[in-house]
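Worked problem 6 (solution included).
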Amino acid sequence: MSQVQALLAFPCPFPIKVLGRREPGLAQQVTQIVLRHAPDFDPATARYLDTSQPVRFPVALSKAATSGQHEVKANVVYFYCSTREAWCRRGSVEILIPVTVR
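Solution. The predicted structure is:
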């Protein structure tokens, strides 16, 4: 088994992110599949992203941050799909997030 195969062997030592079309029952289907392979998995620990709401990310700054306006550089990775044409693509964009330190 290669090093990559060992890392991807279930259960993995890191979180697994599942992307799918927003359809009723997706979360339950994913949970059933995970429970087949990891019966000790607690579905209550799963986190789901509600994409109908804006996505907000908390930012922690060190005590040494100076007061005033700053910009934090971030890279946003997103997926866009066409149901009609049956394709999905991955995109990314570098953004600057304005932050005010008081």
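Discussion: Residues 1-52 form one domain.
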